[in-house]
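pasting for ref. prot 1 ->
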Amino acid sequence: MFRNIYEIFGLNPFFSSNMASFLGGMEDLCSEPYSGVPLYMFFGLVMIISTAFIYAMHYHIIDRVGYSGFKSWWSSAGIAFVFNFGFASIRMWNLLNNGPLKFDCDEEFFQTIFNIPEIAMFAFVNGALSFIVFTLLSWPPLFRRASKNCYNTTPIPH
């Protein structure tokens, strides 16, 4: 499920098919599958949980008049973007630097995914998806009904 979502927004215009294969569960090109959780699933779950937490903070925990405006919505959505961008970029960099990966069969595959623009573009897609999830959570009034002060807070000023 997460693979399809990430690849709609990211494959080829943003990150390469080699990165997509790696995130989908290919550990190497020696026909040995990745033994852990596929990275699309890992990053997708972290993105959904962290964005839902930021949404809950904005609408249900903080829920003050000072945070009920147009600018505060964009600030919270920006925090979700920045957090998920930073998490994905740091985690991918650490994984590719320190992970137990075996790319002996194809050094070109590893060189394609282990560069800053490739990692940054995947992180950008992760951040953009968190922004979209935050928007989807906060746009319909159904999820905002429990909020006392932020009920009318949406990305478009009223």
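and prot 2 ->
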Amino acid sequence: MSWKPIFILSLSLIAFNLQTPHLKTPGERQISSLPLELTEAETQAILKERSPKPHVDATLKISDARLASAFKLVGESQYKSAAVDVDIYAGLIVYADVYTHKLPDSQIKDRNTCLKKIEQAIFKQSRTVDAVLREFPLDYREMAEVKIGQVKKVRLRAINDLLGDGKVIKTTDE
């Protein structure tokens, strides 16, 4: 295999991460890149989309596939692999949220559309998430609950931003 495609992919990922603005929220670490555990095909499917709506759609589609995989794996008692998929799922949701919040004010309509898509995706996935968490043994469940807690904060923040410009729902972080 030639080194050129790998080198070009590495450069494109570095360039994308440098172009991605950062969002800081109270009590949450700064996150701005895709999970490293994604396959090359998953990463490319997301990065090839340059417009906000398709970019977020691709991210949510892959996050949904990872959650479905976690559900299947936990049913087969493959807890370690399922935990990795839950971690990637949560990372993708957080990435979509950060990406959306970094959109400039001139793209407020796109931002609101993306926030709505993110919120709806999290809502639709909530039963599957709960089922996966119930099936995990305690040692895996604790870490997964932390990740899912991040996802729930993303949903709450999306609702808050859509309904009241971030001022309707008070959180303990403020």
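Helices lie at 3-19, 40-47, 52-75, 79-101, 108-135, 138-164.
Confidence is low (pLDDT under 50) at residues 1-31.
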